[in-house]
Amino acid sequence: MYLVIAEKPSVSQSIAKVIGAYEREDGYLKGKDCMVSWCLGHLAEYVSPEAYDEKYRSWNFDDLPIIPRKWQLAVAGDKKQQFSVLKKLLQRNDLEYVVNACDAGREGELIFQRVYELSDSYIPVKRLWISSMEDSAILQGMEQLRDGREYDNLCQAAISRAQADWLIGMNATRAFTTTYFKKLVVGRVQTPTLAMLVERNRQITDFQKVKYSNIHLDCGDFSVHKEKIFEEEKARELAELCDGKTAVVRTVVSTDKVVNPPKLYDLTTLQRESNRYYGYTAQQTLDFTQSLYEKKLVTYPRTDSQFLTEDMEKTTIEVIGVLKEKYGFGKVYPWKPDVKRVMNNKKVSNHHAIIPTMQVKENGGQKLSEGEEHILLLISQRLLSSTAQKHEYTETEITVVCEGEVFAVKGRVVKENGWKDVEAAYHQFGKVTEDNKEASENALPLLEEGQEISSVKASKTEHFTTPPKPFSEDTLLSAMETAGNKEFDEETEKKGFGTPATRASIIEKLVSSRYAKRKGKQIVPTEDGIELIGLLPDNLKSAGMTAEWENQLLAMEKGAVTSESFLGGITGLIDEMLQICKEIPKEEKQRFQKKDSLGTCPVCGGAVQEGKQSFYCSNRECNFALWKDNRYLASMKKKMDKKMAAELLDKGKCHVKDLYSVKKDRTFDADLILTVEDGRAKFGLEFPKKTEQKAGTKKPGKKAAKKK
């Protein structure tokens, strides 16, 4: 008997079907000699600091750093039942081995390892490593199971990445929050990503546009240009000087050029183009593609490779035939597929590029959502474009001299449209458009060097330099992928920061934490995000350092770097960060108490700020709060508002109108009095003696009370 554990129920069902586990049990499927169960994604996570020591329940700078001696895991509350099932299965005496069938990558290793560790199991582990959920791929993978120990280094890299994220997130967030008395969230990858958004925002904000002129000579059948003249007087004089004069052709150079087909999609390039074409976020694209993978329509999505392995040639040609028929690309794809161009074993590490499977012919009999249809079509056209003919054209550049100044123009004539026919057909079929910055076909007349062109017409146009564009999800993903590349040698395996599988969640965390926001397709930093980056030290927001950590994790996967070495660097960084916090001037630490503060906390003197549910003390060690919904005011049908809170903090009382008396069934006015007991707010009422109490109105449908 053996046990197979996958990430999700849907994947488990696909595997169970192939290996004959048809009998449904509580939390797993059973066959003659096998069982199949699932983890429900990340079933367990590292515990919060207070689980190690109750003192960490209060945030105190002097308690930092928090570095667990022995890391503890806890199962998420809503997943305890499934963990109980897995633990019982993993402790069965009749099991020969367990198969790790979680997604074939770093995160899949982590998900399985945590369950295996918490179950206290010692059953030998085998690994199912596949890139497609097709029955044939599952069957082949089960017949070629690998020893789980082959993936120990990958597993260690996954564990080290998770521990590094915890260490920096918990320590840096607590350090800066308790230093500035304001919740400031810091993340190992999240923060340098935010820093890029803030830097781009600064470039845009500080940009000063500069006026320049372009001079154009109309030579009859064509025009030539001299661009970006920043001295307006010089531009005006040049236009006047050349107008009506004779120009001489100095050079005519024609060059045959080739544009190779694009590479296949890895996850990042798919996310970028999905955002550009459809406006989908990186997370939405990943979700759609993951769903297509589980429906057996595309191969494994969390890949950083844009090539296929050489043993896939026959299958790829068959898939191309299906796609041509399914989407009607046959008319624009008359060639024999050049699949060898997209095959390179050396450039495929864990998984090959994302392509459709043979199941795509009839969608596997499944109905797809609009997003899934869009992504499937996008992946399909990329496979066809990548294996189509090259795009070939002749580019001609002409230079002309007039009054001693050189003007130029380029034109092109397409010889073979090649893969661009597929791209154009996709644009039409998919009803998508894209800004095309490439020069359009523009045939120039046949000219000879030395040829004179008389009476040219000169004109001047005015333009302004433009600032950098805000990041879109497309360009931010690209920046994350290449971050820090300039700081490494050519030999370094550059991966930027984050991974194809995690970059989407990093962007989502920035948005959910309100440090960044979406404006259409743009992603821009918020005021809070800009302020956070402004006060953090360089080593916490450095793209180069974060990219170097990712390189170390990749090296760890290959056994070249130890976990101790990597985490030693992380704890060293935390020590540096704490020392920086200690040296921050007292006045700087008060910056947020002066901003958005309703008043001073009557318990500790900290700044009181507004939250969703209360007006709370920004000092995390203090429990003082004025709750917007509190029992005392609720009994009089009233809520605490911002004005009331500010007056109570300033004077200890505030005048409140239209309080409701249940006993007398009418409203009344009174002074609300604030007192503090054991660090908590207490309330009472006082009635001003000199002010006659104003009778209120009774409930609808009842007679009004008489005034006394």
Strand order of the largest sheet: 2-3-4-1-7-8-9
Q: Categorize the overall geometry.
A: globular
Largest sheet: 7 strands, mixed
> What is the count of helical runs?
21
Strand content: 15-25%
Distance between the termini: 88 Å
Task: Explain what you see.
The structure is a single chain. With 708 residues, the protein is α+β, with helices and mostly antiparallel strands. It has five domains: 2-144, Rossmann fold, CATH 3.40.50; 162-205 and 470-587, Topoisomerase I, domain 2 (Orthogonal Bundle), CATH 1.10.460.10; 211-260 and 392-464, Distorted Sandwich (Topoisomerase I, domain 3); 267-389, Topoisomerase I, domain 4; 599-686, no CATH class. Helix content is 36%, strand content 20%. Strands 2-3-4-1-7-8-9 form a seven-stranded mixed sheet, sandwiched between helices. It has a four-stranded antiparallel sheet with strand order 14-13-12-15, with no helix packed on it. Strands 19-20-21-22 form a four-stranded antiparallel sheet, with helices on one face. Helix 3 (106-118) links the parallel strand 7 and strand 8. Helix 1 packs across helix 4 (135-143) and helix 9 (282-294) crosses helix 11. The longest helix has 29 residues, at 152-180. The radius of gyration is 33 Å and the shape is globular. The termini are far apart. 37% of the residues are buried. Mean pLDDT is 89; it is low at 487-493 and 691-708.
